[in-house]
Every structure is written in structure tokens, then in C-alpha cells.
Amino acid sequence: MTRRAVVAGTGHYLPERVVENAEFEATLDTTDEWIRSRSGIERRHFAAEGETTSDMAAKAAERALADAGLTVDDVDAIVVATSTPDLTFPSAATMVQSKLGMTKGFAFDVQAVCAGFVYALSNASALIASGQADRVMVIGAETFSRIMDWTDRSTCVLFGDGAGALLLEAQEQPGTNKDRGILATDLNSDGRYKDLLYVDGGVSTQSTGHLRMQGNQVFRHAVEKLASTANTALDRAGLSAGDVDWIVPHQANIRIIQGTAKKMGLSMDNVVVTVQDHGNTSAASIPLALSVGKERGQIKEGDLIVTEAIGGGLAWGAVVLRW
Ligand code: UT7
């Protein structure tokens, strides 16, 4: 038997304020048509004034607990993937811990930008497999609206805010690739590409900074690296693209999502797409898509899922799991 990290519950939270593409036409030299055709984005949610990453993360986590029929006392650890924590420290994860009323266990953040949730899932799976935790709440939460340069039309129309959560729990499974739970992961980064997507500020440079991106360069890397990491993770699990029920990709651009599916030889009928409604929510995009995909009735128990993401670093990776 093998100890696997199995999804016991999901939840998500989106801030109330919805911003349609057309709103940007008033302040920027852009159009709804450009944004829609180049990125697939139609709208995104922005956090309210004073609403923080840990507020959204805690709401998503509460919903995942309710979905699993468990309480915070059943959780051993919280891992939050974010690049936009409330404060420099403590971690957003400890703030979530406090908001949930959890006084035991441990909590920490993972920072791998848009690949953050894939990194967090991989870490949580290792914590469970090694026996360090029985139940881990894995959350992706971001308030990218706080690091936008609102005069830069090439970036500010692309991102949104939100949070998604997966409650993982240890289950003894037979130890084959038919098991439920996380079956394989693949993580990568290459800091030579740090200038393609970054924030031009931070603690040791004494500013908050704004997101800067050479979008077309990131695009070029994305399709190739995403298909490759997804296939590597599938290979590690002894599976191939033909076994996949759902690709649940990072939601940055519909053209990247389509290109990756095509490269993997899969149809868009096998892809959960939320980019039109959420924009790019960085580390929150995959758990949001998993939670929404389940709510829509797309993702069902037993389905084989591959998640993949790429972002600042560059950092990228994939996780193969059976729901
Ligand atoms: O989540 C982290 C990973 N990030 C990504 O995966 C994002 C990857 N990149 C992309 O999604 C796409 O590259 C973008 C959506 C960012 C841009 O699409 P593109 O087809 O690569 O366009 P481009 O950057 O090559 O720009 C084409 C033109 C440029 O004008 P010129 O130089 O051809 O005259 C831009 O100035 O579009 C212009 N442009 C805009 N026009 C209207 C850029 N932003 C806008 C805008 N409205 N908002």
C-alpha cells in the first residue's frame, strides 16, 4: 500500500467586484476586442479596498472544509501559494490559520508566482507521503490588482484576484497509477529568464513595485515548456496524454491553453477553462479552475487530471492526480 495525498474537498472565493474588459477602454488605448482575441479574457474580479490575500484564502479554505465535511481541527498544515501576501511577514498562511481559528499544526507560504500552486501541491504531497501531516489545506490566493501599473496596457488588462483551496488527506492506496490522489509531479525553474516577468520592487529594494512582463517572450516559452512538463509528470506516473480526462491549466491566455492541449494531442473538450471569467490570477488560477470545474460537473471522482503552470522565474511544473 502507498500513502497518497487525495483531494477531500475544494472551495474558492472571488471578490465581489467584476471588471469587464470595456471598463479599460475609458482609461487606456485598448479595446474589449483586443483583450478578448489576444488573451481570451472577458472579465476579472478585483478585491475590495482593504480586502487582502489572506481574507480571500481563508474564505476559500472554509468552503473546502465544508465541502469535505471536516473542521479546522482535522487539519495539520496550511500551505499558501502566493506572491502577494498581506505583509512581508508573517506568512499569509499563518494569517489564514488565525482566521480559521486553528491553533495547532503549522503553516507556511510558497512563492513560485504563477507556478506557485503546482509547487505547493508537490510540497503538500511530500508532507503527506512522508507522514509529516495527515491533512494539508493547499491554497492559491492572489491580489495581483495591487501590483498592476494601470498605465501599462500590455499587463494591467490581464490579471485578476481570487483564491482557491484543496484539502488533501492521506489515504492508503494500492500503489498503482489507478490510485486516487497525487501520482506524480515535475518542477522546474530557470533564473536566466528572470527579466521576462518580474516585479520591479521588493523588501530589500524598499518599494512595492509593479509587474513587468515581456508577454510575447513568456508566451513563446509557455506552450513548449507546459506540454513538456505535463508529459514528464505523466511519464513518471506511467501514464500518457491519452489517459488524461482533464487538463486543468494555469489560466493566463486561451491561446497558450489551446496550444498546450494541441501539443499534447488532446482536444479542448478535455480542458477546464475559466480564463474568460477570472483573467490571470497567478497562483490562484489552478485551484479556482479545479473548484469551478468540480462545481460545473466536469471533474468527477476517478478522473485523471494534469495541472500545469508557468510564470515568473521562469518557474514551471505539472502535477498528475486522480480525483
Ligand atoms: O501567468 C504568467 C505567465 N504569463 C503569460 O503566460 C502571459 C503570456 N503572454 C501573453 O499572454 C501574450 O503575449 C499577451 C496577451 C500578453 C500579448 O499578446 P501578443 O499576441 O503576444 O501581443 P504582443 O505583446 O506581441 O503585442 C502586439 C501588439 C503590440 O503593438 P505593436 O508593437 O505590434 O504595434 C502591443 O503594443 O499589441 C499591443 N498591445 C495592445 N493593444 C491593445 C499590447 N497590449 C495591448 C492592449 N490593447 N491591452
Keywords:
single chain, 323 residues, alpha/beta, Peroxisomal Thiolase, Chain A, domain 1, 2 domains, 4-stranded mixed sheet, 9 helices, 13 strands, binds oxa(dethia)-CoA
Shape: globular
In terms of DSSP E residues, the strand content is 25-35%
Specify the helix fraction band: 25-40%
CATH topology of the largest domain: Peroxisomal Thiolase, Chain A, domain 1
Question: What does the main sheet amount to?
Answer: 5 strands, mixed
Radius of gyration (CA) equals 18 Å
Number of E-state strands: 13
Please report the first level of CATH classification, the CATH class of the largest domain.
Answer: Alpha Beta
Distance separating the two termini: 18 Å
Low-confidence stretches: none
Mean pLDDT: 97
Number of domains: 2
Helix/strand/pairing category: alpha/beta
Sheet with most strands: strand arrangement: 1-7-6-4-5
Order of helices and strands: EEHEHEHEHEHEEEEHEHHHEE
Would you identify the CATH H-level superfamily of the largest domain?
Thiolase/Chalcone synthase
**How does CATH name the architecture of the largest domain?**
3-Layer(aba) Sandwich
Tell me which ligands are bound: oxa(dethia)-CoA
Number of helices: 9
